[in-house]
């Protein structure tokens, strides 16, 4: 595992910029996670010191990595989230191509991760805490909020597809 440096193969690194590409299983130094306007914004750096996912995983590999993330989250929530974020992001990218049981498992892991972060942030004593530790907590919280909100949107989109809705005609509701 590499820590604390940019990847030399990343486009921004070749251009002399600092970009934080993240792959599953890599621990990174603390970088600020910015909630993107669109998912595509997380696939490329826009300049400056920025977190981005360098290589989303294919659906099949993502499913197998999900259990690893569950174990990592059980052992250390805050430290595991940046490491597992590429898996979470890849599952969002492949949401419709994975089975319902995987989606439901992903939902439980995402919510449990968010609960764990909220518990740690809620119980944290920020007085005397290092800036690095504050940044780790803040970034983990933003990452998990992003994942859970995106999951809600995916479930809503799937549930409201025309073939998922029961269409009733010629009925009046009072």
- What is the helix fraction of residues, given as a range? 40-55%
- What strand line-up does the widest sheet have? 1-2
Largest sheet: number of strands, sense, barrel closure: 2 strands, parallel
| Overall radius of gyration | 18 Å
Number of helices: 5
Could you tell me how far the N terminus lies from the C terminus, measured between alpha carbons in angstroms? 62 Å
Helix/strand structural class: mainly alpha
Organism: Geodia barretti (Barrett's horny sponge)
Protein name: Condensin complex subunit 1
Give an overview of the whole structure:
The structure is a single chain. This protein is mainly α and 174 residues long. It has helices at residues 11-14, 59-75, 77-93, 100-122, 131-159, and strands spanning 19-22, 50-53. It has a two-stranded parallel ribbon. The longest helix is centred in the last third of the chain and has 29 residues, at 131-159.
């Amino acid at each position: 595992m590499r820590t604390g440096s940019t990847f030399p193969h990343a486009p921004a690194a070749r251009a002399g910029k600092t970009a934080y590409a993240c792959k599953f299983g890599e621990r990174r130094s603390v970088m600020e996670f910015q909630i993107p306007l669109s998912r595509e914004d997380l696939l490329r750096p826009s300049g400056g010191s920025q977190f981005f996912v360098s290589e989303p995983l294919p659906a099949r590999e993502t499913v197998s990595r999900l259990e690893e993330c569950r174990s990592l989250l059980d052992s250390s929530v805050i430290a595991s989230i940046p490491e597992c974020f590429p898996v979470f992001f890849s599952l969002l990218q492949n949401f419709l191509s994975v089975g319902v049981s995987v989606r439901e498992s992903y939902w439980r892991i995402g919510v449990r991760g968010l609960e764990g972060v909220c518990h740690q942030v809620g119980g944290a004593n920020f007085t005397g805490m290092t800036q690095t530790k504050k940044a780790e907590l803040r970034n983990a919280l933003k990452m998990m909020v992003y994942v859970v909100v995106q999951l809600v949107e995916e479930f809503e989109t799937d549930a409201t597809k025309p073939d998922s809705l029961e269409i009733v005609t010629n009925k009046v509701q009072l």
